């Protein structure tokens, strides 16, 4: 399997090298297991037989790696040529024919067909995927079924917007506003999935800035696009999609 990182690298690990989880163990640190650099963020983990891989940088450059290219990845080698201080922000697998969404830190969202994103080799730097304007791309994913675009902010507020509320545009567009943010707030994370599968890490009761180790179902009902990101009973510190 491969971890795709914010530095645009593929880090390889054999399944047999992953410790078996027993009892109440929460597993090993994924960055250490894949030998990531200090500060290097693992964006996704894929298998060699994965579908094409969508890669998008913070500045909005995007490309796809074919499934054949994914299978040929080598440990530590680049999956995308990054320019200057740009970082890889989004990495996910997506089949032909689906729509994807990309979200920026200033709450813009672009929905576009994955087929609009060019297939390029690992050494290529991508094409204009999204016009990030004054923000930076912070997340995204493919749209399946009754997916919502769930976001949380650096202030602990959150929102889930039905993907059907988001109009489709061509590659390179700035998209539309996903949600209204409070003054100084930024989108900190994004999950694209059906609402029932989204888990939230909440602030603990005694210290809202410290994560409660027990995730909960997404705490807010979906609302229309361009409405305000709101507070739950506790701050939302992270979001993720359940794997089983």
Structure description:
This protein has a single domain, classed as Neuraminidase. 4% of the residues lie in helices and 35% in strands. The chain has two helices and 18 strands. The protein has helices spanning 30-33, 67-71, and strands at residues 2-5, 9-12, 42-46, 53-57, 61-65, 77-78, 88-93, 99-104, 108-113, 127-128, 137-142, 147-153, 158-162, 176-177, 187-194, 198-202, 216-217, 236-241. Strands 3-1-2-6 form a four-stranded antiparallel beta sheet, with no helix packed on it. A four-stranded antiparallel beta sheet has the order 7-4-5-10. It has a four-stranded antiparallel beta sheet with strand order 11-8-9-14, with no helix packed on it. The longest helix has 5 residues, at 67-71. The chain is globular and about 45 Å long. GO terms for molecular function: ATP binding; DNA binding; DNA topoisomerase type II (double strand cut, ATP-hydrolyzing) activity.
Top keywords for this entry?
35% strand, Gyrase/topoIV_suA_C, GyrA/parC_rep, globular, four-stranded antiparallel sheet, ATP binding, Neuraminidase, 4% helix, Type_II_DNA_Topoisomerases, 244 residues, DNA binding, mainly beta, 18 strands
């Amino acid at each position: 399997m491969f971890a795709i990182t914010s530095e645009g690298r593929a880090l390889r690990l054999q399944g047999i090298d992953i410790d078996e989880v027993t009892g109440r163990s929460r597993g090993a640190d994924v960055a250490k297991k894949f030998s990531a650099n200090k500060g290097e963020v693992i964006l996704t983990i894929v298998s060699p037989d994965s579908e094409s891989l969508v890669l998008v940088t913070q500045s909005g450059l995007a490309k796809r790696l074919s499934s054949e290219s994914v299978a040929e990845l080598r440990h530590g080698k680049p999956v995308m040529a990054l320019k200057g201080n740009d970082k890889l922000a989004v990495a996910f697998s997506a089949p032909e024919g689906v729509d994807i969404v990309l979200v920026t830190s200033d709450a813009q969202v672009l929905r576009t067909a994955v087929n609009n994103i060019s297939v390029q080799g690992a050494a290529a730097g991508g094409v204009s995927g999204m016009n990030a304007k004054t923000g930076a791309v912070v997340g995204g994913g493919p749209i399946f079924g009754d997916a919502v675009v769930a976001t949380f902010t650096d202030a602990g507020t959150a929102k889930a917007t039905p993907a059907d509320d988001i109009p489709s545009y061509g590659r390179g567009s700035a998209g539309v506003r996903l949600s209204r943010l409070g003054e100084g707030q930024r989108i900190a994370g994004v999950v694209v999935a059906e609402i029932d599968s989204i888990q939230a890490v909440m602030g603990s009761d005694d210290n809202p800035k410290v994560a409660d180790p027990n995730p909960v179902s997404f705490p807010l009902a979906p609302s229309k696009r361009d409405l305000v990101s709101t507070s739950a009973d506790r701050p939302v510190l992270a979001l993720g999609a359940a794997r089983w």
